[in-house]
Amino acid sequence: MGAALGDGVICVGVLTPHASPGPEVEFPDMAGEQVVTRLVRIPAPGATAGAPGTPPTTPAGLREIAVLTALDQAAQVLGHGQVDAIGYASTSSGYATGFDAESTLLRDLSRAWDVPVAGTSSSAVDALRAFGVQKLALVHPPWFDDELNELGATYFQHQGFTVLGSASADLPNDPSLIQPDAVIDWVSGYVGDEAEAVVIGGNGFRAAQAVDALERRLGRLVIESNQALLWSLLSQVHATVEIQGYGRLFRSSPAPSRH
Q: 31 and 55 in contact (C-beta within 8 Å)?
């Protein structure tokens, strides 16, 4: 392992264009001290040391920042040999660029840094395929607008899934105010009987603690952005990290390698 942190400890680098905490909170929740997370925020377009700018939220802005140059510059902060894998934590960027462009970007970054690289949205696709899901419901954070909801539905539809609905949860707009019980109640009331799985998108949504209870209540697979990203990263480095209480995904087959 490149990070050399000791037996059984995995170091993952996380690149994100978003300001809200996400994987750096939920990875330790799920994996404890078995995983060390090193986060690098990708600068906003045109940002300088004196004027850091505002992280993009529109599809156009997300497409602009989700290019190899920006990601590679961010990855340089991590340094070669300092991490075992890299995750690109931006559900909305995947939606905005599309699966094919996202996959190409991740492959190029993996070759440049010689470590496995996973993206949030493509990891969710891999997770759904691991369980043979065809019909799904999409749930997004309250700060996703109609355009992002539609882009999310299109993203999964282009990968052969039937999307039965794509909606922003009617919950507080502040991530720190969203509680697992509220997520469980809202999602349970939203998902119809036809859905075989629920995908909760948005790395800043931080709904991982709701996954296990939701699966028990609904009797269906629940995929959450940070959960799927961590599953993919651990699978690709062949890590034997035991994670319990965060859904059926961590008991499934490994994610396919994109390295």
A: no
Question: Is residue 51 predicted with pLDDT exceeding 50?
Answer: no
**To 10 degrees, the CA torsion angle through 103, 105, 107, 111?**
180
The SS3 call for residue 64 is helix
Bridge partners, 163 (sequence order):
136
Q: What is the pLDDT of residues 227-247, one digit of tens each?
A: 999 999 999 999 888 899 999
What is the pairing mode between strands 221-224 and 135-140? unpaired
**213 Cβ partners below 8 Å, 6+ apart?**
180, 184
Q: What is the number of H-type helices and E-type strands within the chain? A: 10, 8
Question: Of 32, 88, 36, 30, nearest to 62 (Cα)?
Answer: 88
pTM: 0.87
**Residues 111-124, mean pLDDT to the nearest whole number:** 93
Confidence of residue 4 (pLDDT cuts 50, 70, 90): very low
- Which residues neighbour 254 within 8 Å (Cβ) at sequence distance 6 or greater? 235, 236, 238
Can you say whether the dihedral through the CA atoms of 133, 163, 159, 155 is positive or negative?
negative
CA distance 128 to 161: 9
Q: Give the three-class secondary structure for 225.
A: helix
